[in-house]
Design goal:
Blueprint (H helix, E strand, L loop, with lengths): L1 E11 L2 E8 L5 E6 L1 H11 L9 H11 L2 E12 L2 E10 L2 E7 L1 H11 L3 E3 L1 H7 L5 H31 L3 H20 L1
Parallel strand pairs: 4-7
Antiparallel strand pairs: 1-2, 1-7, 2-3, 4-5, 5-6
Helix pairs in contact: 1-3, 2-3, 5-6
Length: 186
């Protein structure tokens, strides 16, 4: 298994992508994920505090309540273009493996500061080294993702106000301001 770091979440013309960067070499593993998982990860890495737990926060709380901990997550296989992951938990002195989608496993790993690993065979098949030009395009994609995230947050803000969830609305408003400031600085 290759240790990796969560590098970034970007928006491409085909959807949201998580980039996992190898710690031992310069290969990066891109994994396409769904909008809901991308939003959960984006809110966490942006340090947005939500008054009620999201699904990944809930699962983290349940795991901790059961006196278990996430030892690591592994992106362990690639079958017909679909990445397979698993959570490796430590519960009552035993190691327990739980099947997972990579996006959910990574969202949990980020919340628990758990290490992330990728199978050598998966990195060999799907990992890649980004050229300097591709890195610039990735940065541009991040800016586009920020704009898409702004639009989504503005819709969430309107909904929170309409539903009279003013505490949520204030937090969403603050995140919108933070993202807008980031765009004006760039």
């Amino acid at each position: 298994m290759i240790p990796v770091d969560f590098d970034k979440l970007i928006f491409s013309n085909m959807g949201f992508v998580i980039l996992l960067k190898g710690k031992r070499d310069n290969r990066t593993l891109p994994i396409f994920i769904g909008t809901v998982e991308a939003q959960s990860i984006a809110l966490f890495i942006s340090n947005v505090k939500i008054p009620r737990p999201l699904t990944h926060d809930l699962l983290k709380n349940v795991i901790e309540h059961l006196s278990c901990r996430i030892e690591r997550i592994e992106v362990c296989d690639l079958r017909e273009g679909t990445f397979i992951a698993r959570l490796i938990l430590h519960c009552d002195g035993e190691e327990v493996e739980v099947d997972s989608r990579p996006s959910d496993a990574i969202a949990l790993a980020l919340r628990t500061s758990s290490p992330i690993f990728v199978a050598e065979s998966v990195m060999d098949e799907a990992g890649r080294v980004f050229t300097e030009a591709e890195a610039v395009m990735t940065s541009e994609s991040e800016n586009e993702a920020g704009e898409g995230q702004l639009d989504s947050l503005k819709e969430d803000l309107d909904k929170a106000v309409a539903e009279e969830r003013y505490e949520d609305a204030a937090k969403i408003r603050d995140e919108i301001k933070r993202l807008e400031n980031m765009h004006t600085e760039n």
